[in-house]
Design brief:
heterodimer; A: mainly alpha; 2 domains; B: 182 residues; mainly alpha; flat
Chain lengths: 171, 182
């Protein structure tokens, strides 16, 4: 399949099935890694989108799109990520009151959330394993990062410092 | 009339440009947006509703929130103005960073950079996953959330495609949460 069309369909699907940027990481991993981008490119995409200001989800989409097919790839991924929420919002502003009373919509989302968290844990493990840092250095960075984030140090600072530490620890 | 509409759009565009340059992600932008929008272009109740809806509907959270605020302030044109303001900063930044990094892809230090970043990225994903799980059963520690999580874990273990697992989890949510609440 044409890579641009492939990107478009993947981001359409991911944005229909997940409710926020960070939650889409698990799903996206399964769709693109090994098919369109390498493990290393995916890690760069997730890391950088959490470091740079602005919407995570859009930056993740654009980085992956760019890695696959340059600027057109980035723009196609952006368009596909924007389309589902835009159409839905425009639709919903007209039927706002009816949808609010439909309990099954919120039940569906409530059911989705635990599954997405599990998917993300699987993804986290895969990223850790295939990121090439599974010796003591990788575990040390991972555990220290986890502790810092649990202590509410801003994520982007943790990710950035970890990457810089990586340059020195993995020469 | 036209003059005042035009100034609403400019104001929206400027507001979202500012929020998206200053905040790193969707959830983080809520606080900033609250200060910018509530009492000026929309009421507190409208804002709470907008946040609620952007959590429930599919797609990027930050975008949906931007569009709801845009709609409250300036109708359909407001939606597109807010969208433009929310998209512009991350697009420009990411395109620049992506093009620079792709050029360095074969340099040695990139490997160390990625190797250091991957454990932190894994930690980041775990933190987000925990927050998501906690938010999904906020009222009480919910047995149903654990049932769905357990079944999903089994399904992922056996490599069942993730969109199918997620759809199944949603349907299970409709069944489980529907029965108990009636």
């Amino acid at each position: 399949m044409e890579p641009l069309l492939q990107l478009f369909l993947i981001f359409l699907k991911v944005n229909l099935l997940s409710t926020s940027g960070p939650a889409s990481v698990g799903l996206l991993y399964h769709e693109v890694v090994g098919k369109l981008v390498t493990e290393s490119q995916f890690i760069q995409a997730v890391g950088l989108s959490s470091v740079l200001p602005g919407s995570d989800a859009l930056q993740l989409a654009m980085y992956i799109g760019y890695a696959v097919a340059g600027v057109p790839g980035g723009l196609v991924s952006l368009a596909a990520s924007i389309l589902p929420p835009t159409v839905i919002i425009l639709g919903i502003t007209f039927v706002l009151h009816r949808v609010r009373r439909e309990a099954w919509v919120s039940n569906f989302v409530e059911g989705l959330a635990p599954a997405i968290s599990v998917l993300m844990i699987f993804t986290a493990w895969k990223i850790f394993q295939k990121g090439g840092a599974t010796d003591w250095r990788g575990w040390a960075i991972g555990i220290v990062s986890l502790i810092c984030m649990a202590l509410k140090v801003p994520e982007r600072i943790v990710v950035l410092i970890a990457a810089i530490v990586g340059i020195f620890l993995f020469p | 009339m036209n003059q005042s509409k035009f100034s609403v759009w400019i104001r929206l565009l400027w507001m979202f440009l500012k929020v998206n340059i200053l905040s790193p992600s969707g959830p983080a932008s809520i606080g900033l947006l609250y200060k910018e929008a509530v009492g000026k272009i929309m009421t507190e109740a409208q804002f709470v509703e907008a946040v609620g809806f952007s959590n429930v509907l599919p797609g990027s959270e930050a975008l949906k929130l931007a569009m709801f605020v845009g709609f409250a302030a300036g109708g359909i044109p407001g939606v597109f103005t807010a969208l433009l303001g929310a998209i512009l900063p991350p697009t420009i930044l990411m395109m620049v960073v992506a093009s620079v990094l792709q050029r360095f892809q074969h340099e040695g230090w990139i490997d160390g950079f990625v190797a250091g970043m991957s454990p932190a990225v894994a930690a980041l994903i775990i933190v987000v996953s925990w927050e998501l799980f906690r938010a999904s059963s906020r009222k009480k520690i919910d047995r149903r959330a654990f049932i769905i999580a357990g079944l999903s874990a089994v399904a992922f273990w056996f490599d069942i495609p993730s969109p199918i697992v997620l759809l199944g989890a949603g349907v299970l949510g409709v069944i489980l949460y529907g029965q108990w609440s009636h």
